[in-house]
Write a structure and sequence with these properties.
Elements: E1 2-12, E2 18-25, H1 36-51, H2 53-57, E3 62-66, H3 68-72, E4 85-88, H4 96-107, E5 112-117, H5 119-127, E6 136-140, H6 147-160, E7 165-169, H7 174-182, E8 187-189, E9 197-203, H8 208-218, H9 225-233, H10 236-246, H11 260-286, H12 295-314, H13 319-328, H14 331-335, H15 339-344, H16 350-356, H17 362-374, H18 378-387, H19 392-417
Helix pairs in contact: 1-11, 8-9, 8-11, 9-11, 10-11, 12-13, 12-17, 12-19, 13-16, 13-17, 16-17, 17-18
């Protein structure tokens, strides 16, 4: 499985209370070639989908860096203005197109912060008449070492743009903090308070071409949610991300989920489309599509269809729930997290949760039979066949159908790759 990482650094107010966080890209391979576009997209996927914004920041605002290319592509417009604060990197070139994009973001209610500001950078943006569209200015205390120059810059900004919130970044001493507060800075960030804290999780690999296929279908005038759900259900990574997303603070519903189809309906076309675009952009930047399924992912596919096939013979009204029991049964091994923590993030129906926790019940027995068949434990297979009053022929047929379905799913992936 892929290890996913990012770092968060706290931003404090004048009383040293937590105001928010800046989210920063981190990698297990520190020598890799830097790609600012990919770094931002990775941060957003890891924050919202893999780790979870609630775990990262709770209700606090988050600052995320944006390159000029991502501003031009309007990636931020895929998100609600309340989701994030757009941190404009200092090397953004203020072309006419860029200025139009920034103005549009401001007019739509997005909060914008200019990063690593020096006196020269401020003057450049001031001459271009772009400061008024900002919400925050982050003054670089390592680049401006003179207290007098910092004070002069702060005074000018406060006089010309009183709506701007001044943030002192790269604050490394108590003296810097006290001096910044005295000259009017409202927010503070730097090693003096805390170094960035690295957060790590794991991600189920997916197939880039699945995103492409879904985006093509989701853009059609005659949008078929059931067809979209069917495609998503064949991708464990997308299915898990979908359920985790719908359980996040931004989307959380009161009702629990019993199927991928229900999750797709609840999330809706707009939100699914947004995340498909972001995920496809990430994988296109990496240019590293997954070739085939990992053994644990393949096992998840088999268990899902086997549980569904058995349930259809016993309790057809619960076949969708049975599918998700098998589908998500390998998540603890894949993501290396306890089952209870994973379940908490998915808002699954209680019948599904109980079976995953192996609490006695019909779906638990169905799941045990599917796993016993997978592991070739014939005594257990015979036990559950007898307990569930099934015939060996029916169960063998369910197994063959499940395997055929898995092979079809994998063939579809390989066909799209070729």
């Amino acid at each position: 499985m892929n290890s996913v990482m990012l770092a968060k650094q706290p931003i404090l107010d004048r009383e040293r209370h937590l105001y928010g966080y800046e989210l920063l890209y981190r990698s297990e391979q520190p020598t890799e070639e830097w790609n600012g576009d990919l770094a931002t997209v990775e941060v957003m996927i890891n924050a919202f989908l893999n780790i979870g914004m609630e775990q990262l920041a709770g209700e606090k605002p988050v600052f995320i860096n944006f390159t000029d290319n991502l501003i031009t592509q309007e990636l931020a417009r895929q998100f609600s203005p309340k989701d994030l604060i757009i941190e404009l990197l200092e090397d953004i070139t203020l072309t006419e197109e860029m200025k139009e994009k920034i103005i549009l973001l401001s007019h739509h209610g997005y909060r914008l912060a200019l990063d690593d500001v020096t006196s020269e950078l401020f003057l450049q943006w001031h001459k271009e008449k772009m400061i008024s569209y900002l919400t925050y200015i982050k003054v670089d205390f390592l680049a401006i070492t003179s207290h007098e120059e910092r004070a002069k810059l702060a005074k000018v900004i406060q006089a010309l743009y009183p709506h701007i919130t001044l943030l002192a970044e790269k604050v490394e001493t108590m003296e810097d903090f006290k001096a910044a507060r005295e000259i009017g800075f409202e927010l503070f960030q730097g090693y003096f308070f805390m170094k960035p804290k690295v957060m790590e999780s794991h991600e189920i690999p997916s197939n880039y071409f699945t995103y492409v296929q879904l985006i093509e279908r989701i853009n059609r005038k005659e949008f078929d949610l059931l067809q979209i759900a069917e495609i998503i259900q064949k991708d464990l990574s997308l299915s898990y991300k979908l359920l985790k997303l719908i359980n996040s603070p931004a989307y959380r519903r009161v009702e629990r989920i019993n199927s991928i189809e229900r999750a797709v309906v609840l999330l809706g076309q707009k939100e699914i489309k947004k995340w498909l675009h972001v995920l496809a952009l990430r994988d296109s930047l990496k240019q590293n599509p997954i070739n085939g399924a990992d053994v644990l992912v393949k096992s998840s596919y088999y268990r899902a269809k086997m549980c569904e096939n058995i349930a259809e013979m016993l309790v057809p009204e619960y076949k969708q729930e049975a599918f998700l029991v098998g589908y998500f049964s390998q998540l603890p091994a894949i993501l290396r997290q306890p089952l209870d923590r994973l379940i908490k993030n998915l808002s699954l129906e209680e019948t599904i949760e109980h079976a995953l926790k192996e609490i006695p019940g019909i779906l638990t027995d169905v799941y045990h039979l599917a796993v016993a068949f997978e592991r070739v434990k014939w005594e257990e297979v015979d036990f559950y066949i007898s307990k569930l009053n099934l015939s060996k022929e029916d169960v063998a047929n369910a197994y063959q159908c499940a395997n055929a379905w898995v092979l079809d799913v994998l063939k579809e992936e390989l066909h799209t790759i070729e």
